[in-house]
Amino acid sequence: MSMVGVIGLGQMGIGMVETLIREGFEVIATDLDPDRRAAAEKLGAQVVENIAAVCIATDQVVLSLPEARHVEAVVTGPGGIMESNRAGMLVMDATTSEPAMSQQLASVMAEAGHGFLDTPVSGGPTGANSGSLAIMVGGAEADFERARPVLEAMSAKLIHIGPSGAGNVVKLVNNLMTASHVVISAEAALLAKKAGVDPKILFDVVNASSGRSLISEVVFPPHVLTGTFDFGFSAALMRKDVRLAMALAAATETPANVTALVGTIWADSADKLAADADYTAVAGDIIDQA
To answer: Could you give the CA distance from residue 235 to residue 269 in angstroms, rounded to a whole number?
Structure first.
């Protein structure tokens, strides 16, 4: 039985732990939060207090962290993976990170004889728990093949996009589209409501028609129209992802007229929505304008 390390036990990381154990892997896990470590232990993972202990036990590690700066600290910072001095480490970074950071870390690790893949995921906590994530991978082919058993265990769709950073590019574009769909769907609900049509009926029809999307089908009926706003992804993380996607558009000199408006809406949402509010709550604010 292969052992895999998981560093970062938020909603996505803990779901990955559950799936990997169910798929027959031994898991050794850590997080700064002792409550998150306890949750992983209840699932059957071996939990430790630091990264060094993870690296002693295994040479394959999945990261699920909030931002690129956290990835950099875990990989190259004091007490990080590079300091473990274990030969042939392979890092699979599931964080929605920055392409340039992934390229930098992949280069540093390759020079030291290690592998680094950017492996961002889509599917939310439900996908992590069920092993049905879409995983988009950037990095060397040999590292991808070595990581394949772990990544396949967590995914319904696994694609090697290209070189280091390519997985991050696709994930940022995906999340920018998601953020746009949320705004568009919310404005559609507002329009229907102001015109005297129940938004629930609107989406019953839309979801059998050409205007449907995953947001309108999977997110809005249970998480927005019910007023629960409990999908499980924070507003702060979505704002971060949109900001990174817009920065990528600027860096590549890509026209982004429509998504620039979406970016402004999400940036402005910080005035009303706390960092830990669910990202679907931005739709509630739009619909409440009726």
So the answer is: 8
